Amino acid sequence: MNNKTPKKSKPVKQVAVAERREFYKDAHASLVKLAVTSVVCLVVSVGLAIYSHSSTTKNVYFAATDDGRMVEMVALSTPNQKDANVSAWVQEAIIETFDMNFHNMKSQIAKSSMKWFTQSGGEALVQSLDSEGYFDTIIRNKLIVAFAPTHTPVITKKFYNSSTGKYTWHLQMEGLLTYRTQTKVYSDTVVFAIEVERISLREDPKGMGISKIILRKK
Question: What does the pLDDT average to over 191-211?
């Protein structure tokens, strides 16, 4: 007769609880993996979006100047030159404009007004010099005129001019205006108040023009 006691089997309830725990454990692990994967995908998507936005192609337009150079076009409402370039350009313009004599005076002013000034600025310059008798004085005394700056032009104001729709600079330049005859030389210390505004590259290679100029003795 077999006296061995038969093995007791685990209660069904305990087995079910263990299986449920394993199920929850596996499900939790799967959820963690899914969450990590989602976060990684989100980070990658955001990174790609930022890269795509930053690397989006921007249209740049160029214009050909009279001398054949290609220059990037900039809206007239914004500056297209550094301050130092504007000052150097103004200095060159004034020196050339007031380099004349009793023979070539009117032609020189006309040439300079077309090269450095806006249309209205050039017309105002000629009218001002003519009405003040500047031309008559030079011709009558057979003068040779030259301007030499004593200081680099200083930008006193720069702004978007809403009345013209153009970016504008105000500058001031001091120097000596010298008059020569066959026997005499005399000079006046003068100050130029100059207004420069943006214009089309088709009008000026630098995209700038003098729209107003006031000359006074210091």
Answer: 94
- Give the Cα separation of 192 and 94 in Å (integer): 9
d(CA 125, CA 209) in angstroms, rounded, equals 13
Contact 99, 188 (CB under 8 A): no
pLDDT tens-digit map of 100-146: 999 999 899 999 999 999 999 999 898 888 888 888 999 999 999 99
| Whether domain 75-217 has CATH 3.10.450.230 | yes
> What sections of the chain are H helices per DSSP?
12-54, 83-97, 105-116, 119-131, 134-140
Q: Where are the domains of the chain?
A: 9-58, 75-217
Buried residues in 165-179 as b, exposed as e (16+ CB within 10 A): ebbbbebbbebebbb
Q: What is the DSSP letter of 180?
A: E
Helix (H) or strand (E) holding 195: strand 185-198
pLDDT score for 134? 86
Please tell me the distance from the alpha carbon of residue 64 to that of residue 205, in angstroms, as a whole number.
Answer: 9
**Using CA atoms, how far apart are residues 178 and 173, in angstroms rounded to an integer?**
15
Residue-level pLDDT at 202: 84
Find how far residue 2's CA is from the centre of its chain. 106
